[in-house]
Amino acid sequence: MLQLLAGSAERLGRYRHCLTAHEGSDAARALLRESLDELVGLVAPYDPWDVVELLRVRCTPPAPAAGQGSDPEATAALVELVAVVVAGNGRPAAMQGAAPRAPLAVPVIDRVHRLALDCLHRGSEAVAFQATADAAGDALARVRVGATLREMTVRNQVYPHMLRDTLRMLFGTPEVEADCRAALGFTVADAMTVLDACCELRGQMWGERMAAVASTARLAAFITEAAEHGDASDSTLDGPRELALASARKAVETAWSNPADAVALNAAQLARHTGLPQETVTAVLDVFTLEPHPQTPQEAALAFLSGTSALRMTPLLRDECGRVLLVHDALHLPAIRETFEQRLKDANRWTAYSKHRGTYLEEAAADVLRRHLPQADVHSGFEYFVPDPAAPVPQSEPARYTKRAEGDVLVVADDIAIIVEAKAVALNPRARAGDSMRLRRDLTRIVTDAAAQAQRLRERIETDHGVRLRDGSWLDLAHVREVHTIAVSLEDLSGIVTTTADIVGAGLLPPGNLPWAVSLHDLRTIGELIARPAELILYLRRRTDTETTQKFMAVDELDLFLHFYEGGLYVEPDPDRVARELPQFGPPTVAARRRREAETATLLTSRTDRLDAWYFHQLGHTTVPVEKPAMAADAGVLEPTPFS
Question: Are strands 316-318 and 324-326 parallel, antiparallel or unpaired?
């Protein structure tokens, strides 16, 4: 997302006449409507699904390779924007059929792409101007803009293989599967199979078309080369060469003609491909298909550019013949959990899943830490006693505490304790779109409550040097000298919790003892990158330092971590504070003061290209080996630690 906004300075010239942020927001919205009207008019004569599919191909980059940067203009969000523009009009029956139809959409796709990108830019600028205008009276303004822009522009927020693992673990128990069948008529495994089949069959179609192009091109090249190296007076190959060239041109034309007819699928085709009963396939399609809506194309696009996508939970379009089109491959996996959770609630079958979800999140987070701290003591799902503030007599000794509290995970490795609070609460769609009240409420439930619960245990460790457990036993923690807290969530909160300083400013977190608020998937990814326990501890120290969150700004947690790996995420310490706390090092030096004064805020753009390439190779999508990202440090410093 920051890559999309990185060029904003060059585009701000169009707003130089604006004297206030409100004027800037109004101007951006006026420019946005102009681009939207032009986009709607441009795509009107064409098969809307052809436009969506060709733009999807245009915005699908090749598998990432080491050293190859991602293209910020090839984003699935553009495909989604165009899809919501064309979805309201449906797909006219006259534009369907196997025979080639005119006009072909290929010639206008680059222009469609450019207009969609303009809309995304102008929508982002409108949101940013509005947040600036609201900042004086809304402490959450910057957090809101991060949430909205993330929802508008960022797709593939989680590596698909991790998301699949999470879906299987969350919904794969017999009891939860039974509830899912009762509520929806199918399971998460069924939904993944059907929606994955849409991707697989689409890939097969394009593979066949491109193979035909390559085959005819090779034949044409072979005959042309033979003709050019033969006797100039011999014209026997002229005819075959013309035929081969014509065949190659025809294959290219066929490859890009009316792709929607080839990628649109019905329930019978999907049932044959998956082996599932057709009624199961139909049930899946019904749940995940976008129904007709009364919005105009402009209204649907403006909603999307405000952070509310109609395709978020319904990523399929359906035509009058009952065939469906999956808008793009980054939509269907994220839609599954949110859809199933809502349907389970509606069917009053929430209890078993909710209990399992919380347990799974705790165990998954503990497993990541256990893997890197194998000799640590890990306590999960425990209860302990704290002073009861309502007691008639103040409770100052652990033996007299009567209020029972719950702890999710406590990891004790030598003299370091890590407290983990797991929050499986989901973000409300309105919170994702930047609604202040809903965002504050949801962040309170996910981040604030987790921080408060972790702080409660931290206080017992630091004050009592241990905790009295429910069974009356004493957990001695007198040797602990360093305590860290992690608030882990199933939600991807990139663009929200990475702005920790703003969350503190909004009163959602206290200024001291900040927790590391992180999604389970980011925690898993970081866990797979970490090569030694010391890296984990150092990252915890730097990531939760109050000044770090003020200096480094990023949308993605992985950008922060990979910048840390590059040798960054370091804030020059306050020399006066160092002198007070470490007087043995003498008074502050002039050089130290200058280094401190030279500190400036740093905007971190995407750093995940190499990580993406490594994962693609690990998963077998590319054949060229890619080295895993590693910490840049002196080899001697990277020697194994006592925990290894």
Answer: antiparallel
- What are the helix and strand counts (H, E) for the chain? 28, 11
Burial of residue 543 (CB within 10 Å: 0-12, 13-18, 19+) is buried
Determine the Cα–Cα distance for residues 211 and 601; give it in Å rounded to an integer.
50
Distances (CA, A) of 118 to 31, 78, 139, 321, 532: 9, 10, 29, 34, 45
What is the H or E stretch that residue 319 is in?
Answer: none
Helices 332-346 + 160-171 axis angle, to 10 = 20
The one-letter code for the residue type at 556 is D
DSSP state of 475: E
Mean pLDDT of 624-633: 89
For 130, what's the count of Cα atoms within 13 Å in the CB-facing half-sphere?
20
Cβ-proximal residues to 389 (8 Å cutoff; 6+ apart), any chain: 403
**SS3 for 307?**
coil
pLDDT band at 172 (very low <50, low <70, confident <90, very high): very high
Reply yes or no on whether the pLDDT at 13 is more than 80: no
Amino acid at 24: G
Tell me, yes or no, if the pTM score tops 0.85: yes
What pLDDT was estimated at residue 97? 60
pLDDT over 90 at 458, yes or no: yes
Adjacency order of strands within the sheet including 377-386: 377-386, 403-413, 416-423, 482-489, 516-519
Distance (Å, rounded) from C-alpha 305 to C-alpha 565?
34
Centre a 10 Å sphere on the Cβ of residue 415 and count the other Cβ atoms it contains. Answer: 11
Query: Who contacts 354 (Cβ-Cβ below 8 Å, separation ≥6)?
Result: 424
Per-residue model confidence (pLDDT) at position 224: 79
The two most distant CA atoms of the chain are separated, in Å, by 113
**Whether the predicted pLDDT of 526 surpasses 50:** yes
| Residue that has been written with the tokens 């192009």 in this structure | 213
Q: Burial, 342: exposed, middle or buried (Cβ in 10 Å; 0-12, 13-18, 19+)?
A: middle
- pLDDT digit string, tens, across residues 581-609: 888 888 989 888 898 888 888 878 888 88
